[in-house]
Amino acid sequence: MGEISGKKNLSYTEVFSLNGAAEANILPVTSICNISCVFCSHKQNPPGVLSYRIAACTPDEVRQVVSFLDPARPVIIGESATRIIEGEPLTNPFIREVLSAVRAALPHTAVQITTNGILLDESMTDFLCRLGRVTVNLSLNSAVEKSRYTLMGDACPGRALRNTRLLKSYGLPFNGSIVAMPHLVGWSDLEETIGYLEQCGAETIRLLLPGFTRLAAPALRFKPALREELNDFAAGLRHRAGVPLTCEPPLVYDLKPVVGGVIKGTPAAAAGIRRGDVIHSVNNVPARTRVQAFRQVFKAASPEIIVAREEGLVPLQVKKEPLERSGLVMDYDLDPVLVTDMALALRRNGAKRALALASELGSAVINSGLMQFLEGEAEIEVLTVKSRFFGGSIGAAGLLTVADFETALTEYLRDKPGRLPPVALLPEPAFDRRGRDLTGRSYVDLEQKFGIRFELL
């Protein structure tokens, strides 16, 4: 059963359908976790956040919802991307039956499982291998036993480390992730963990910048410079790392489609694409951003790619099927389609001016996209919205609330009285399918207060 702020119970099917899990191709299996990470976001949520907690789902419950998943996209298990609190999927006592039900319904669909690895023993690893088309996203966080206890409360830290080595011996593909906490465990811990994941055969390694809210304990807070320090640290390791090493959120200053890395043994690697290449065109279509280039390559069959290097333009071919992964690793910047959609929103409303409300993390790339791709007489101003509800270091669009937008617009009008355009554009990730934010407020409240049209993009 699910609960909203501990007040109302819903069935598994209702929780699944209400939270956009199907749209994201996410299959939630439990909210129960077997560790207690100091950086867990759920511990820092301010009062009033709507969240759904579920017990371990059963195979029958999964069979009721699996038909809503898209067989052409990977099924995501254990990833916190909806309002459902995601726990450790392998704690579900029915997990093998659940995964078998998914495989029976979707025999050719890839499955991605995010796990801390503690329960990923030899028997489970063997089962996942036999299930087929499974990739593990391993949240290891530290390969140092003492640090694992500090960061995750892992009382038996050797288990996850031993289990990580099993993935390589069984040939189960996996990606490693590390929530970077050098202010607690030091930079050497981070470097050792990266080396361990590479040694164990990780295809990629992600360094995740932790976030803290205004309610976080003082020990969990860090200076704003950590984001840049983490990116500099990763840049210093990339030249000797044997696998793609990325930072999230990425520190992106431009929209140049630079290749961040190439996964070994993939079509992109076979084609000779290298980290640092700039994709010039895909099948003679100019590549304008990282997101656009990545998607062009992903969708195409054996695309002809021209990359820019110091020696000039180099033609290459990535031999692959349509919708087969290429092996390219690229930072997320901007899809030019977003700018097109913004211009369409103005035309729909018969307006020539609009205000685009953007998160602190997203406003720079949106500004760059508008400067490069906005055509015609349309005028779109970007207004950066600070996360006041969550506070702290939070800067993502998906965590902004109606109250945050309200405050930003009020301050805008104070500084520019009478200058509010007839249309305002809001980041869609901040709202659910019914237009409600994380506190349950609808964006329609903004229309009623400010008397202009709001659209979600």
From TrEMBL:
Pfam families: PDZ_6 (PF17820), Radical_SAM (PF04055). The keyword 4Fe-4S applies. The keyword Oxidoreductase applies. Its cofactor is [4Fe-4S] cluster. It comes from the Bacteria. SMART domains: PDZ. Residues 19-240 form the Radical SAM core domain. Keywords: 4Fe-4S, Iron, Iron-sulfur, Metal-binding, Oxidoreductase, S-adenosyl-L-methionine. GO terms for molecular function: 4 iron, 4 sulfur cluster binding; metal ion binding; oxidoreductase activity. InterPro entries: Aldolase_TIM, MoaA_NifB_PqqE_Fe-S-bd_CS, PDZ, PDZ_6, PDZ_sf, Radical_SAM_PqqE_MftC-like, rSAM, rSAM_sf. PANTHER family: PQQA PEPTIDE CYCLASE, RADICAL SAM DOMAIN PROTEIN. This is Radical SAM core domain-containing protein. It comes from Pelotomaculum propionicicum.
